[in-house]
Amino acid sequence: MNAVVLGDVCKNFGKVHAVDHLNVTVPAGAIYGFLGPNGAGKTTTIRMIMNIIRPDSGHVSLFEGRSVEQAKSRIGYMPEERGLYRKMTVRSVLAYFGAIKGVANKELAQRVTEWLERVELAKWADKKVEELSRGMHQKLQFAVTAINNPDLFILDEPFSGLDPINTDLLKKIILDMRQQGKTIIFSTHVMHEAEKLCEFILLVNKGKVLLDDRLDQIRSRQTSDIVSVELEGETDFIEGLPNVLKVTSEGKRLDIKLAPDADPQELLRAFMDRVRVQAFEVKVPSLHEIFVDLVGKSDAEAA
């Protein structure tokens, strides 16, 4: 089953093509990352999924053909612009949003307590929202999003403002939700978090899709011309080897840039008689490097 389908969706703001013929299918139970630079169209796409703004053309459907209004009770949406009542206490905010999202009275108090514990805000339950730090505010917003146990989570920059400890806390919760069969869509600028969490990656720039696939498939198509090695012995000979273009020192490691189509195994064989090889790794481009490369090419083509 598919949780979200975007069919040839377009959205313009004046002469700006914010989203340009976007076709995306998000399978149920997946973690799907929406990536792109500022102004790429990520938030606009999320707002169209939520029917906050309407596409100029194309269609959006959820859970096999339902509209967002029909599926509203099954969606938890965490917008980029956080919106909580600052004069209310943390506990009362959670209870209020739980009630308006349809959580039964007999379950509400228990859910509030569970989520306060889960996002580590129990000690702050009776404090006003305005007394929270930015990171605490972020965690409370996440709990508000999840209080009604939705099937689909749409999270716009969920890690913004969080320190590493609280980022890990939310990541663990997101992965737990995935294990429960929930679908999670989130936009982020933090590439290494997307690389750790996502099964699928959608990369957009200036409203157009640059990449949309499973992360493992994306990785399998990547080739690298960088070999990272750690050697014991004299290494001055490396720059003179055939097909070696550049050698860069990274502490104990050397990063060796090879000529196009060069075979890393030939480099390894060249080492065997001269030095002791302690580490040898063909470096596959990270998601960050793929992002920078594709967005840079896209911008160059548009110039």
Rg from Cα: 24 Å
Q: Structural class, from helix and strand content? A: alpha/beta
- Our estimate of the beta-strand percent is 25-35%
- The coarse overall form would be globular
For the record, give the distance between the C-alpha atoms at the N and C termini, rounded to a whole number. 40 Å
Number of helices: 9
Average pLDDT? 90
Portion in helices = 25-40%
Low-pLDDT regions:
none
Describe what this molecule looks like in 3D.
With 303 residues, the protein is of the alpha/beta class. It contains nine helices and 13 strands. It has helices at residues 42-49, 90-100, 105-118, 134-146, 164-179, 191-197, 215-220, 264-272, 287-302; strands spanning 2-13, 16-27, 31-35, 57-62, 75-78, 152-156, 183-188, 200-205, 208-214, 226-232, 244-250, 253-258, 276-282. The strands form three sheets. Strands 5-6-7-3-8-9 form a six-stranded mixed β-sheet, with helices on both faces. Strand 1 and strand 2 form a beta hairpin. Helix 2 crosses helix 3. It is globular and about 75 Å long. The mean pLDDT is 90.
Outline:
The chain is an alpha/beta fold and 303 residues long.
Keywords for this entry:
single chain, 303 residues, alpha/beta, six-stranded mixed β-sheet, four-stranded antiparallel β-sheet, 13 strands
Reconstruct the topology from this structure.
Layout: E1 2-13, E2 16-27, E3 31-35, H1 42-49, E4 57-62, E5 75-78, H2 90-100, H3 105-118, H4 134-146, E6 152-156, H5 164-179, E7 183-188, H6 191-197, E8 200-205, E9 208-214, H7 215-220, E10 226-232, E11 244-250, E12 253-258, H8 264-272, E13 276-282, H9 287-302
Parallel strand pairs: 3-7, 3-8, 5-6, 6-7
Antiparallel strand pairs: 1-2, 1-4, 8-9, 10-12, 10-13, 11-12
Helix pairs in contact: 2-3
